[in-house]
Design brief:
The protein has seven helices and no strands. It is an all-alpha fold.
Length: 118
Amino acid sequence: VVNDILNKLEIMERNKFYLEKGLTQNQLAKRLKTNTTYLSGIINEYKGSNFNTYINLLRVEYAKQMLTSNNEWRKYSIETIAQECGFTNRSNFSKIFIEVVGVNPVEFVEKIQMNRSE
């Protein structure tokens, strides 16, 4: 059961289900054809965090990847980036981005721009 759910989580990560706004643990459990208790336990044990933290980490990593590799993304407003990554609002996105990355999204983009111009 554990390996099955871990494999399904990997597929979810590859297919970027985590970008869906308002994704709940219950919805993901249904999609992965398991129950929330198993899903929660496996995420806690194997991903080292609770469901919300896990999804938010995936979203922030996606934002970092897109901002680093895609010039168009660096032109987007923080509001737009937050929405594209599945966050419901800019302030929540910014708060979590700072927790994960150590700088706010604007500073992150500025650093990328500076590195590109050197």
